[in-house]
Amino acid sequence: MDACGAGRSATPVDDHVARILAAVEPLPAVAVPVLDALDLTLAEDVRAAVALPTFDNSAMDGYAVHWHDVADARSDAPIHLPVVGAIEAGAAALSELVPGTAIKIMTGAPVPPGATAVVPYEWTDRGAQEVLIHQAPREGANIRSRGEDVEVGDLLVEAGTVLGPRQIGLLAAVGQARVSARPRPRVVILSTGSELCEPGHPLGPGQIYESNSYMLAAAARAAGASAYRASSVSDDPDAFLERLTDQLVRADIVVTSGGVSQGDFDVVKAALSGLGTVWFGDVAMQPGKPQGFGTVGDDSTPVFTLPGNPVSAYLSFQLFVLPAIRTMQGKARASMPQRTARCTKGFTSAAGKRQFVRGSYDAALVAPVGGHGSHLLGDLAASNALIVVPEDVTEVAAGDSVQVMLLDVDF
Ligand code: AMP
Ligand code: MG
């Protein structure tokens, strides 16, 4: 293993994921206005408090009739009925429809007791006092029956469902103003590095633009979290600890970037090692080897200390932070799924580490994109997949079957 370059005690990727998942749990559910529950996970089963349709109602604008009164209507032998009233949508209690009469009725209006069909306008002369019906409906035609869609007590949406527009429509239709759902995890991103300059300002000598916190906050939002960027700090452990402490109160998760390697100014490691609650070490992966994870503060807030190289930071987010966010959201599947693809071009991979190669995926074919360097942000932005090369594979040939993780696909 050492000869392969994985380091003396590198933690396997899956073990690091397991360590993280053991430390996080679903956030407590809150009552959320039904529209705001879009993309949230429902925390309890919802059953129908009312039937759908809620009462027998008309599917057409037309005339409510006793079906047997009009069963013989034909164009050459139309049937006359007196029109004894009109019912609009929203009309309250109705009296019985007297046989031999018709009532004008609008779409969605309650069907009067006794009526057994609605004749659409198009089959009549649209008369106001008296109507001429020239075509016979089926018995029961154009009446939407109470409960034909949903009965009172039916299980409508199960706990654990991620609510989309259709579920939200259904919940509103049965009168739910609020639902019990898992809130969006609040993720705070804190970048470190004395070389960092905020976009929008001129770069000084030796400076680079701070991009990780933007990328990571965007990734957290794309995952359904509420993400905030804390302003970045220089490589000063005291300043870092102070900024981190400030942020803990508003965070369910803190993600830091940079300062976890072996350098002289590895601020995150220096500041958090002393607390004794954050594990720092190597994970057997490439890119993204130096990692840290633990809990900090009174609320034992999970803190992920990601490496600063942009590709490493992004990959670490997808592999480690995303499953934690999804667990807090109460989602059933924490980690990104993998699928099989055919690789269109060969490449080599280091032994003893799980390699994640940026790729361009389309229709079950994947091509590696760019080089292996963890600073190659342009290549990362040009890719839409990661090719996952197992620890024991050192060479992938063109035409080989590989596992890929699709980066822009929800799961
Ligand atoms: P570090 O992990 O702090 O040693 O950083 C590794 C590399 O990533 C260095 O080249 C840093 O300049 C770069 N880097 C660190 N943080 C950021 C950031 N927030 N945005 C862009 N690049 C960064
Ligand atoms: Mg740094």
Automatic annotation (TrEMBL):
The protein's name in its UniProt record: Molybdopterin molybdenumtransferase
Cofactors required: Mg(2+)
A GO cellular component annotation in the UniProt record: cytosol
Taxonomic classification: Bacteria, Bacillati, Actinomycetota, Actinomycetes, Propionibacteriales
Gene Ontology biological process terms, A to Z: Mo-molybdopterin cofactor biosynthetic process
Pfam families: MoCF_biosynth (PF00994), MoeA_C (PF03454), MoeA_N (PF03453)
Family: Belongs to the MoeA family.
Alphabetical list of InterPro entries matching this protein: MoaB/Mog-like_dom_sf, MoaB/Mog_dom, MoeA-like, MoeA_C_domain_IV, MoeA_C_domain_IV_sf, MoeA_linker/N, MoeA_linker/N_sf
Enzyme class: transferase
UniProt EC number: 2.10.1.1
Sorted UniProt keywords: Magnesium, Metal-binding, Molybdenum, Molybdenum cofactor biosynthesis, Transferase
Summary of the function given for this chain in its UniProt record: Catalyzes the insertion of molybdate into adenylated molybdopterin with the concomitant release of AMP.
Gene Ontology molecular-function annotations: metal ion binding; molybdopterin molybdotransferase activity
Reactions listed under catalytic activity: adenylyl-molybdopterin + molybdate = Mo-molybdopterin + AMP + H(+)
Pathway, per record: Cofactor biosynthesis; molybdopterin biosynthesis
Ranges for domain MoaB/Mog: 188-327
